[in-house]
Amino acid sequence: MSTYTEHVTRVITEDVDHPALGTVAVLTFAPPEGEERRPATLGPQSIDAVTGAIGAALDRAEAGEVRAIAMTGTGKVFLAGADLSMFADPSAVDRVEEMTRAAHGLQVRVRASAVPILAHLNGVAPGGGLEVALMADVRTAVPGARGIGLPETGLGILPGWGGTTLLQSVVGPEVAVRMILEDPTRDRLLSAAQAAEVGLVDALAEDLSSALDEFAAILAARGDSAEVVDAADGPDTAVVSHAHPLPAADSAEADALRDALDAPLPTGETRRAWAARMEGQGAPATARALELLQQLPGSELTEALAREAAALGQLARSDGAKASLYSAEMLRRGKPGRTPVDGAREITRVGVAGAGLMASQIAAQLALGLRVPVVMRDLDEDIAQKGLAGARDVIAQAAARGSLDEATATEVAGLLSATADVAELAGCDLVLEAVPEVLGIKKSVFAELEGVLEADALLVTNTSSLSVTAMAEDLQHPQRVVGLHFFNPVAKMPLVEVIHTDATDEATLATGLEVVRRLGKFAVQSADAPGFIVNRLLFRVLGEVLASLDAGADPDEVNASLDPIGLPMRTLALLDLVGHAVADHVGQVLVAELGDRFHASPGLSAMVERKAHFTEKRRGSTQPVVSPVVAEVFGAGDAAKDGGAAGGASMGAGDQAPVGEALLERVLEGLAEEIALMLDAGVVERVEDVDLALILGAGFPRHRGGITPYLDSSGASRRGADRTFHGARFGSASDS
């Protein structure tokens, strides 16, 4: 039984008389009546409506009734592409081939159009929306339009309604390859100005009327081409001949396309090698798109479109697409809302206790997001002033990137101040502590603040692993304490874990969530439990890796063992990024709080003492290589002998240290066990919260859906937790 309900896109058709063009059939894509806030998308019925309307306009052109066709959208949406919710329903996915045939049939037909066609991008045009625009002879865009591009390979599929085949004929091979293969991995879509710069858009126009004028001027300018004639001369004249948009087999265009596919990335890896590696990590869409691009030279259009259709049909049913689309929908639903959180208190002044690196980053984000005075306080006046300078530098860097203009940057920087006097925090509605990760220090800070602040002012901790309940237990008003765990670097990391205790009242929690919303970050709620969500699961992974090293495993083999997951960096490089002292501390806390499922590594403690790094950068290597120091410190299983006494998940000296697939299975089964325990204990309410947190806070790949779809499809959830997290939805192991 189908669970998919389509919101069918309408196509409003009207004729407009233009002095230079003659009668223009204007097709406006619109959401269903009464659902104007929804974007116009393409489901099975919608693509019939869109292709049917364009086909009818072409019929009228052939009959001499109109001399041009123009397509546009409503509001700030031209056409938002495929309806992603369709892919969650197996019966709806079965109609992808039918939809593709309709789109491809129209792509072929418009190349013999009797009249010129305009696509005016009044707003976003991702995916299938852009592929519809590629049918046009001319594309214009509103100057402020954004969201133009082909994000499909990042969703586990590919631009299958003509995009993979046709984009290179519009923008050239290099730009097309970048847009199809690379941009989706960065969530990069083009603005109107960027689209114009690469030739995807021919002109910028404020509205449809201006767009028609630009259209007429472009057609007139092209009039000296042997393949172009004035559309006003009659309905049976052609504009730009794009009947043969594919490069010939031995042409310069074909060579340029092959060069683009083999071009190196900033990492040193070629695009081809990178696509192959991604396929090995369960993300085949990029490699399939690259293969289609490689096959274009010398092909007929219908042949190329047939290959595109076959590839899209296969990918749409793959576990990679299921997981990628699951994560895309989850991210869409979890993004910061436009309306304030119900029950949140008003915030007019904020304090930050501490002035170190993390404190200055958070203070800058609070000033940027809340636009209220932010007072930094440290016991030492010089440190306080240094922290203030650091926070203002964050603002300056944002201005340098173009994230805000100079006037706004000056205004926001003026909201920041610093002091050594705790009394200057009086009058703050919220004070966030970002002092060293020691429970006694944090309790002391909160006790001091309680003597200064009003009884309903929020006390917020940025702790990454300590008990918020213990932090608040001696306070007179523990109900006003909440955790906001920011991740480093604060400006770039989009996640904040919002930690509530049993005592936290509803207004405090709502206010914490509202602060995160106004900062433009994703909020994931967690109960007060050791490590919360991200660190608890991340250190379950790191614990297994360190336990294998402590047991004497080869460091290089250990370092490569988790590659199939597709994490953005290998685990030993991640340890260097986290910081060894921090990792050692968090590992000790989790062992003490949660027991021997976690691992307190004597080898890691030795690395801290040596102040040594696990990895080092080497020219020509796409990944940092393992430092020889690691083998010296962890060598021959000596650390494992000590590790038995240290407690945790370490193996005895006589145990074989797992590497490769054995270590990978251990990690996945451990994650499944830990996630199940967290769900059962109410640390998180929904499995989607776990996936969202790991994607945004730890870089777990979107093509895996975060982690739980991968655990289901690989069978690890059954082995480690005796359950699946999503029923039968990700039950196949075909892509893992």
From TrEMBL:
Q: What pathway does the annotation place this protein in?
A: Lipid metabolism; fatty acid beta-oxidation; Lipid metabolism; butanoate metabolism
| CDD domains, A to Z | crotonase-like
Keyword Oxidoreductase applies = yes
User: Which intervals hold domain 3-hydroxyacyl-CoA dehydrogenase C-terminal?
Assistant: 531-613
Which SUPFAM superfamilies does this UniProt record tie to the protein? Answer: 6-phosphogluconate dehydrogenase C-terminal domain-like, ClpP/crotonase, NAD(P)-binding Rossmann-fold domains
Q: What is this protein called?
A: enoyl-CoA hydratase
Membership in a protein family: Belongs to the enoyl-CoA hydratase/isomerase family.
Q: EC number(s) for this protein?
A: 4.2.1.17
Which catalysed reactions does the entry list for this protein? a (3S)-3-hydroxyacyl-CoA + NAD(+) = a 3-oxoacyl-CoA + NADH + H(+)
Keywords per UniProt: Fatty acid metabolism, Lipid degradation, Lipid metabolism, Lyase, Multifunctional enzyme, NAD, Oxidoreductase
